[in-house]
Specification:
Strand order of the largest sheet: 4-3-7-1-8-11-2-12
Radius of gyration: 21 Å
Strand content: 15-25%
Structural class: alpha/beta
Helix content: 25-40%
Distance between the termini: 44 Å
Largest sheet: 8 strands, mixed
Order of helices and strands: EHEHHHEEEEHEHHHEEEHEEHHEEEEH
Number of helices: 12
Shape: globular
């Protein structure tokens, strides 16, 4: 399909297309370009070389459903109201898919949804599935979920109308584990040769001692993070097997991203398409003796963000930016690219000003993190935090427990300073600011 000139009354071709490549359970350093010495992500590395990579991009809640609601609404959980995997409470017309469609965009969603049942009538194109790596097809065969993501994304691009700009969100299931399968991570057969002859480094704090330093309501065998650690990481051999298959799934996503980007180029629209790669939350690779996400540690809350924007000056390519960008910023950034005013209910900011503005804008130096209790406090207790680059204040509301970490001296968050009288002033200052930002998140 080739772009065409718009007739009177149709969207002009100057309106930017938008492609959101949205992976799952993939933290900030699961990228070759981010310095990971093992994982192979050549497509995303190249995308970063053509655009900009944000090194301190974080999520405001580290779990699939809530983070996705934040993606679409540009709001903290406290405002959009989804505290698990249900539909958010924010009106549809105040999120970016609804606003784009109401302004003439052809809007599609492919892959994982995880906010109740997708309102398919609100999309022009939707294909929704997740939860398993191998999907049964009507003819009795199986297709890998990442291959299905690719097929459906390419179908969208090849069948979209020529007279409208489009927005496509490709929500990969990978690298999420298949939780109830003992193998957890199930790549495609052709992916099994890569990574065979490498040894995945084990994090320095993937230890029993680190686990025992956690608050007792997290650092115990009933906690779901510990339960999943046993599924994946409780022997050296299991750790190597699981991490290699996790990286294989990541490389498969990278390959599919390459084929989707190649289709943009084939259609001659790559230079008029905003491309964003990011993920829903980070992931413990056995740090602190845990698996999965949820809690406010760096491994859980920091995620990739790569942006290739047609408006970028040529000298931007390959640069990094270390400002705090957040998943609440994606919706207002997408709307600004489409020349649509963000509703006042959105709480994020258009981060394109960080690379487009002639003068560097004032930007946030801290943010509020929140995560609800799931099931019981033994399963996943609630957690909150005030996050800065140099310091982090954690609060566990059901237990009224505070923690304080000096991230400059202790980037892996092993030395809780909350009870240290030498840091009482810092603790009090951060506690006060934490409460202020918590109130603003509502």
């Amino acid at each position: 399909m080739q772009p065409c000139d718009a007739d009177e009354g149709t969207a002009p071709p100057s309106r930017m297309n938008i492609l959101v490549l949205y992976a799952d359970d993939w933290r900030h350093d699961t990228l070759g370009v981010a310095g990971n010495p093992i994982v192979k992500t050549p497509t995303l590395d190249q995308l970063a070389g053509e655009g900009i990579r944000f090194t301190h991009n974080c999520v405001t809640t580290a779990i699939c459903g809530i983070s996705r609601a934040t993606l679409f609404t540009g709001q903290w959980m406290s405002r959009h109201g989804n505290q698990s995997f249900k539909p958010w409470k924010t009106p549809w017309e105040e999120g970016y898919p609804g606003l784009l469609r109401n302004h003439g965009y052809y809007v599609g969603h492919v892959g994982k949804w995880h906010n109740g049942r997708i309102p398919a009538q609100q999309f022009d194109f939707s294909r929704v599935y997740a939860g398993t790596h191998w999907i049964d097809q009507p003819d009795g065969t199986k297709i890998h979920v990442t291959q299905k993501n690719e097929n459906d994304a390419l179908e969208f691009l090849k069948t979209r109308p020529d007279d409208k700009p489009f927005c496509l969100t490709v929500a990969f299931f990978a690298t999420h584990a298949e939780d109830h399968n003992p193998l957890q991570f199930l790549p495609q057969p052709e992916s099994m040769d890569p990574y065979q002859d490498v040894t995945i480094p084990v994090p320095v704090n993937a230890t029993q001692e680190s686990f025992e330093r956690l608050p007792e309501f997290v650092g115990n065998e009933k906690n779901e993070g510990r339960n999943r650690w046993h599924w994946r990481f409780d022997t050296p051999q299991k750790y190597q097997t699981m991490m290699k298959n996790y990286y294989r799934l990541a490389t498969e996503v990278d390959t599919t991203c390459g084929r989707i980007l190649a289709e943009l180029k084939e259609q001659g629209i790559d230079e008029n398409t905003l491309v964003i790669f990011t993920t829903d939350n980070g992931y413990y690779h056995a740090e602190h003796g845990l698996a999965d996400k949820w809690y406010p540690h760096q491994e859980s809350i920091r995620v990739p963000l790569i942006v290739r924007d047609p408006r970028m000056p040529k000298n931007i390519g390959g640069q990094t930016n270390d400002e705090f960008t957040l998943n609440v910023d994606l919706a207002p950034t997408i709307l600004a690219a489409a020349k649509i005013d963000a509703p006042e209910t959105m709480q994020g900011r258009d981060f394109s000003t960080l690379y487009l503005a002639s003068e560097k804008p004032q930007w946030r130096e801290e943010f509020f993190y929140e995560h609800p209790m799931l099931k019981t406090t033994e399963f996943i207790p609630a957690s909150e935090a005030l996050v800065r680059k140099g310091w982090k204040y954690m609060y566990w509301p059901e237990f009224e427990r505070e923690q304080l970490f000096d991230l400059t001296d202790d980037p892996i968050e092993e030395k809780d300073l909350a009870s240290n009288p030498e840091h009482a002033v810092k603790l009090g200052e951060m506690r006060k600011r934490f409460l202020q930002l918590k109130e603003l998140a509502r």
